[in-house]
Amino acid sequence: MIKVITYGTYDCLHYGHIRLLERAKALGDYLIVGVTSDDYDKTRGKINNKQSLMERISAIEATGLADEIIVEEYEGQKIDDVKRLGVDIFTVGSDWVGKFDYLNEYCKVVYLDRTQGVSSTDIRAKSRKCKIGVFGTGNVVTKFVNECGFVNGVEIVEDDFDAVYVATTPDTHYSLVKQYLNAGKHVLCESPIAESVEEYEELLQLAQDRKLILMDGIKTAYATAYQRLLLLVQSGKIGEVVSVDSVCTSMSDFQDGSSFAGKWNSCCAWGPTAMLPIFQILGTNYKSKQIVSSFIDGEKKFDGFTKIDFVYDKAVASIKVAKTAKSEGELIITGTKGYIYVPAPWWKTDYFEVRYENVAENKRYFYQLDGEGIRYEIVAFSKSIETGKNIGNINSEVSDAIVRVIEDITRHKVIEI
User: Fold this and answer.
1) CA neighbours closer than 13 Å in the CB half-sphere of residue 218
2) What span, in angstroms and rounded, lies between the C-alpha atoms of 270 and 3?
3) Is the dihedral of CA 153, 227, 345, 305 positive or negative?
4) What does residue 409 show for φ and ψ, rounded to 5 degrees?
5) How close are the terminal C-alpha atoms of the chain, in Å?
6) Contacts of 55 (CB under 8 A, 6+ apart)
7) Mean pLDDT over all residues of the chain?
8) Could you give the CA distance from residue 241 to residue 88 in angstroms, rounded to a whole number?
9) Residue 243: exposed, middle, or buried by beta-carbon count in 10 A (0-12, 13-18, 19+)?
């Protein structure tokens, strides 16, 4: 029996895909089709597939051409698959000529001419793009615009947009978000969305009433390593969590001697990111909190440094955030079996360690970080708009809890130092 294997994403399965599968099938007696996973596609720069992995697998099954379907999950897997499955022929489209010649050492390699005039890229390009307007300035806006270029199905425009990205100073977020929601626009807003719980809940209700997406923007929530970290914690890898300690500091805004006017204070610039793992791991129902802040302006609107301690029923947590002080920006999650250590700057992590009493059991995890998580945040925003359901990685309870803490600081419910 001659075994043939081929691979692809198979997003929006079309006639060209089917013709290629038919011709691959004709090369032998048994056809194995490898469908690339979402994570592996991300590492190859394929962002925002229209269909999930299971939808793509189901589409291949429905053709009746595949005798076996496998999932391609990592670089170099093709060699493993060819050897493990006893493959005789590897085949792929002619646009990859030469790319897989290295497999000739393990099996025969055949490049098939592709069906002209049809491709998944063309199909996606012809579908209506989500037009996003941008309101704000600074480095984060530049990154957002650049990252949109990597995402299928979105387009940055100046007028006639469907959605808007808001990244102005936090004191203007409420009024701008309300303005755009009232205008029928979906909104992705850098966190915090508002400076008071009353304002946030008003905006959330307005979005729900108008059937619009209102998404809280914290790019770290979309970093692959951070998401895998949460899954490990939830799986009990380090036992019951008893402490989460999160530090975020940066003095770059003031290294040129400039004033704090027009800049984000510490609690707004770093607070949402620092609180994110606490609220997503321990929840938002803490028993008490203590906030200690150092204000550097006469009106006490700019905290140069803030430390917050949270007490839960069976755990504690703390954050340190600063714009005028420096500390090690690490994240430590303490459990009853072990702990997770994420080195500085943890909010941009592509690596973390799970550590135990027996160091021989320690394990390191590495994940590719593309665009600091921003491009995957854009994907989630786009798909939320497309489906009409908020599928972002930050739920309203977490957003509410973040705003609640910010409100206490802005209203000076703190211990001042």
Assistant:
1) 27
2) 55
3) positive
4) -70, -45
5) 78
6) none
7) 91
8) 50
9) middle
